[in-house]
Amino acid sequence: MDKEGGAGVPPAVFLPLGGSLTIRNRRLPHREVEAAVYFVTFRLADSLPDKALQEIDSKRKDILATASQMGRGLSESERRRMRQLKARRVERTLDAGAGECLLRNSAVAQVVVTALKEFDGSRYRLFAWSVMPNHAHVLFQTIGNMPIAGILHSWKSYSAKAANQILGRSGEFWQREYYDHLIRNAAEFYRATRYIKENPGKAGLENWPWVWSWK
Known about the structure:
Layout: E1 21-25, E2 29-33, E3 37-44, H1 50-69, H2 76-95, H3 106-118, E4 124-131, E5 135-142, H4 148-167, E6 174-182, H5 186-202, E7 211-213
Antiparallel strand pairs: 1-2, 3-5, 3-6, 4-5, 4-7
Helix pairs in contact: 1-2, 3-4
């Protein structure tokens, strides 16, 4: 596999001074900063059983209900707990190999890698990625005012169509929702890089070829 996959150097600036800030709302407010660095995870449609999602939603609703009963918004610690609750539970379920794990098919995995590389250097800069059996992680920096949602849509739309053709199937390929985290400093950047690089090994995938990082 061709290991070329990104700019090869870490970003000099994580939160550019004067960069525009956009607040978007899916279930919780998300901050987007122009030309900042993000860690994202997107998953196959069948990768999370309904029971696991229901458990996550139930615990998140409890936190929201507590804040509502007290007549206030979420505190920073509660927001962090909401993010961690979902991220940790989801990661454990994904790494256990939930669903058909269609990305074990090398041709399908290559389609996802091709999608990631397509606009590297024009819409975003790639710093690390791993295509796991049922999900993908990417660390990247946006270029200009390109929104995360637009970037994810291009990755998922192209790869879903091509993957379904390879597999001779139709229907939903990726889950609509995805996880994203704004990288705030160098420590978080290196932590995300390390996590992506080590994820295949921690999931028991020896000599997994679908992983790349800038160092």
